[in-house]
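Table S5 (text form). Sequence records supplied for joint modeling of the two-component complex.
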Amino acid sequence: MPDQHTSYKAVFHRHDVQLAGIIVVMAVIFSTLSKSFLSAGNLVSLLENYSVMAIMAAGLLVVLISGGIDISFAAIAAVSQYVMATVLVRTGGNWLVAFGFSAGFGILLGVVNALLIYYLRALAVIVTISMMTFYFALLMFVTDGKSLYNLPDWFTDDLSLFGIPFPVVVAAIVLLVTVFLLSRLSIGRQIYGLGGNPEAAKRMGCNLLGLQCFVYGYSGFMAGIAGLVQAHRVEEVVPNALIGRELDVLAAVVLGGASLLGGIGTVSGMVLGIVLLAILQNGLTLLGVSSYSFGFVTGLVILMSVSATAYAAKHQQKQRVRHAN
Amino acid sequence: MPTKAATASSTPAPRPSLMAWFGRDPTATMLGALIALAVIFFSALAPSRFLSLETPRAMAFQMPELGILALAMMIPLMSGGLNLAIIATANLSALVMAAIITKMIGPASPSQAIAGVIALALAAGLVTSLVVGLITGAIVAFLGVHPILVTLGTMTAVKGIAVYATNGGVIGGFPPAISFLGNGTLLGVPVPMILFLLCAIAVAVVMSHAPFGVAVRMIGSNEKATRYSGVATDWMLVGVYVASSLLCWVGAVVMMARFNSASAGYAESYLLITILAAVLGGVDPNGGFGKVLGLFLSLVLLQIISTGFNLLGISPHLTEAIWGATMILAIALALVRDRWMARLWLRRTSK
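The corresponding structure-token record, covering 676 residues in total, follows.
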């Protein structure tokens, strides 16, 4: 599309540009209405609050681009977080151990998802819902729902880098890695190809099983890191703390322009989607609107966004038909 | 999976009798076998408790909530869509009914006034559900947005309204007439079970015999072909989500009556379980195929597992884990079964 019209007009029709425009307008409105909105403290805490979500969203985005879907990432995050915390509490450990266990377990569970989807030839949404139920229920059964509070001091100590909180640093690194993966590496382009047309990707010589293992493994990897960051942030591990976030994260990624049909989606769009939700909720809080209204506003934004995208696509198609005639 | 059965039965060549027996309804056969297995397993482990009359009674009270909501999920699934808003719709509808009943009925109200208020509340709940269904259906049908996205939005918004209106609280305390709908029995059969069976029969008849049901299944198989053959697919899709919401309303009445209260956060864990139950029951998540009988059998299976484990004193969390594993097992069994049938078929035809 961008090759056909590079005029100024076409720029305004791009999804991420529109999103950025809405965000700027909202930021201006909120900063005039509330003085604390643009304060450094507020922006940093805003970033920190949404960093765990952004890390999980990066994994989900890659899966969505490949044409799949993963509902189990929050359950995977909870399981790998708990495994990591148990090891740390028992042995003391260090950062390498913490990272190895949370990321390793995340990758393992993600690859199990991929193998089931590939060999059972089942829909990804059904398999990952089943596995979400399975992983999480098993975690609750084994742990009895007990939280872990006595994490080692080195793990919960403040790790700010030039005043930027640790979760934000991790989220930034994760997002940069995902951008690099999707746009610069061969496997990233293969993931777009797989999502755009699986049959064509297969005939081009892509290894579908390998790609699926990579994609769901990456989602599990991100879930593991998100679990680690969350544990560091709240200084405890509660087995059901991350559960129920699946659909929120999915909403943010979709808001950023990723298609459920695969082949479409960018990290920048996803970040804008999360920023939009974050600014909206934060602005409403600062204006003194009850936090009970967030759900309604968020739902309305999702509905308006997906409807507008669909309407624009329909309009464009009609115009194309008119031009063709 | 059902596609293969359909092609097998439409071929005029003579077929082996074993395959005919499997081919008629492979899902029901498989579920029947799994149910028999589960019954034998639990009877062996806890004969005195599992084989008592109390077991089917407890099951008949617990199954309908999930069952009615699973029916509400089944219709959109058969049209090739999905309704993630079913629980939110049911909860909002229950809250509207609960608010009207608790606000307008005092301890001194005469019985006629109580009946009038209950009728008004039921009507208001019905209207609430239908409005949600109408909006969902209109966005899916006329704007062509993917149903997962639309219902993700309506789910968030509808739950948001419920949370905002109640500040996350609970509304409860109803007259005995409401409680009867959830906990009473009629001729020995629990009332919720009767409501569920009525819904199940209605959905079965509509989906297999009424023009609407046939159109929905055709849309699920191939929407474009259905539109080109002269079916008003967009209005049929609106109907799908309205029908789904209608079932949510029935589910709301049963839930409200059983819990004797309503809240924005009830039964949320059911959402993904309804999809599991429907798919386990042979409803094709790609749309086009599915039978109420299969859904019913899968609900019975899930309920037997849950009741059996409960009797054995095993944690409900482990039960849920086994539900998830059962789903994967059922997918694997279906795959093995289809391959086996295909091989059997090949051997027969090559002779």
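Note: The interface with chain A takes residues 84, 139, 143-146, 148-150, 152-161, 163-164, 167-168, 268, 272-273, 275-276, 279, 285-286, 315, 317-321, 323-325, 327-328, 331-332, 335 of chain B (CB under 8 Å).
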